[in-house]
Design goal:
2 domains, 21% strand, 8 helices, 12 strands, Rossmann fold, 38% helix, binds magnesium ion, alpha/beta
Length: 262
């Protein structure tokens, strides 16, 4: 029997990875995904982490974790070629070019934006290779207020958006996010959104938690309220369990609904 789910897209932190748990990703989920991969399904870890940060976390897990694709920094794509992860072009090149051109337009306003934040909050503001304005707020209340201010600014700059995950945020190009990256992987595999599962727990997952990109939507119990609402409003599954146990429960539920036994 052909699998109804042929591409599994999971966020990492909080969705499948819980640092305080041992193991940090449950064997239940890793085993389930491995069985689906053995039947032809592909797995993408769709995360805001960069390559070094993600690989360091995967090494620490101490169990085999073998995604077929990575979406990093919510936008750059890599595929495993059997030996190692290699960047997918022209997507990554076009993504890099689009961000470079966008951030040139934003540069003149950065001192004003940074000044506004620093005058009111004890937030850390910095640039990194992916964004000229990155932020770590002291708490989620501060992050909400800064988010509101920066979203107001983004409204006046075409293609600019703020990607938020907990107390972290960064400027990014609105055309490149977890959803559009998932759409491109789906297209490259010759699949449709009807065959895609997506699971996430925070605001930066909302772009991929859409029926436009994935028919099968899920969030673990620990997801933020707006994510749970988005999933439920599209007939997805909000699990009773946190993180990887929750994702495993949702995957199994969907497979059973479609008559698949593993
Ligand atoms: Mg997360």
């Amino acid at each position: 029997m052909s699998l109804p789910i042929k591409l599994i897209s999971t966020d990492f932190d909080g969705t499948i990875f819980a640092e305080s748990d041992t193991p940090a990703i449950s064997m239940e989920l890793l085993g389930l995904i491995a069985r689906l991969q053995a039947r032809g399904a592909k797995w993408v870890i769709n995360t805001g982490r960069d390559m070094v940060s993600l690989q360091a976390a995967l090494v620490r897990i101490g169990q085999p974790v073998r995604p077929d694709f990575l979406v990093l920094v919510e936008r750059e794509m890599h595929a495993h070629d059997g030996m190692r992860f290699v960047g997918i072009n022209p997507w990554n090149e076009e993504c890099h070019r689009a961000h470079r051109d966008l951030f040139v337009r934003v540069m003149p306003d950065l001192p004003r934006l940074t000044g506004w934040i620093k005058a009111r909050f004890s937030a850390t503001v910095y640039e990194d290779p992916y964004s000229p304005l990155c932020l770590i707020a002291a708490n989620n209340g501060d992050a909400d207020l800064i988010h509101e201010y920066l979203e107001g600014y983004c409204g006046g700059v075409s293609d600019l958006t703020l990607v938020r995950n907990d107390v972290y945020a960064r400027f990014s190009h609105a055309g490149y996010n977890k959803g559009t990256a998932l759409e491109e992987i789906t297209r490259r595999l010759g699949l449709t959104a009807a065959e895609v599962f997506a699971a996430g727990d925070h605001l930066n997952d909302l772009p991929m938690l859409s029926r436009r990109y994935a028919h099968w939507l899920a969030s673990p119990h620990n997801a933020v309220q707006s994510v749970k609402q988005a999933v439920l409003s599209q007939h997805g599954c909000v699990s009773r369990f946190p993180a990887s146990r929750g994702v495993a429960e949702a995957l199994l539920l969907f497979l059973r609904q479609t008559g698949v036994e593993l």
